[in-house]
Amino acid sequence: MPTPSPKHALDPALVALGLAIRATRQARGLSQEELAHRSQVDRSYMSSIERGTQNPGIMVVIRIASGIGVSLEELAAQAGI
Predict the structure, then answer these.
(1) How far apart are alpha carbons 65 and 12 in whole angstroms?
(2) What secondary structure does DSSP assign to 24-72, as a single string?
(3) Are residues 64 and 35 in contact, defined by beta-carbon separation less than 8 angstroms?
(4) CA distances from 54 to 2, 3, 28 (A)
(5) What are the φ/ψ torsions at residue 57 (nearest 5 degrees)?
(6) 56, 10 contact by CB (below 8 A)
(7) Ordered domains of the chain (ranges, CATH)
(8) 74, 62 Cβ separation under 8 angstroms
(9) What is the Cα–Cα distance from 16 to 71, expressed in whole angstroms?
(10) Tens of pLDDT along the chain (81 residues)?
């Protein structure tokens, strides 16, 4: 399992982003493993992102949004960030 981001783990913005990713993924009927594959990240890293313990880079978030089938703007709006 990935080591949590020591400086930003569980920051409210990361938790909100993770919840938005999870909710959108589930609404589209995607498993966490399938989204991780589509986003080119490890499934355990995807789990950490969804829990808000990782601070993913912008390119990872763009790949996740694309993997879910939404724009980065839609994902950010859902997260309220």
Answers:
(1) 19
(2) HHHHTT--HHHHHHHHTS-HHHHHHHHHT-----HHHHHHHHHHHT--H
(3) yes
(4) 8, 8, 23
(5) -70, 165
(6) no
(7) 12-79 (1.10.260.40)
(8) no
(9) 16
(10) 788 878 999 999 999 999 999 999 999 999 999 999 999 999 999 999 999 999 999 999 999 999 999 999 999 999 999
Regarding pTM above 0.85, the answer is yes
The torsion region of residue 54 among left (phi > 0), alpha (psi -120 to 50) and beta comes to: beta
Print burial letters for 16-28: b (CB count within 10 Å at least 16), e (below 16): bbbbbbbebbeee
Residue 81: count other Cβ atoms within 10 Å of its Cβ.
12
53, two tokens? 């313990």
Residue whose structure tokens are 């999870």: 22
